[in-house]
Design brief:
Length: about 60
């Protein structure tokens, strides 16, 4: 869960979709261009994962069914 307004998240999602980086639908985000997404994130890329691992342990990604 993110501490942002839904409208802000919707705007950001539409911007990333418009740039061809992701495809999103209710409950699912598909990364279409990881390199472009990483470049857009800049120096913040990986910080959340590193903090999660520091606090909780190794992060496991789960592929959609």
């Amino acid at each position: 869960m993110l501490a942002v307004r839904r409208s802000s998240l919707t705007i950001a999602t539409h911007m990333l979709e418009g740039a061809g980086m992701i495809r999103a639908k209710r409950g699912l985000i598909i990364v279409l261009d990881r390199a472009k997404l990483e470049a857009a994130a800049g120096e913040t890329y990986g910080k959340a994962e590193a903090e999660y691992e520091r606090l909780i342990g190794p992060y496991r990604s789960v592929a959609p069914a």
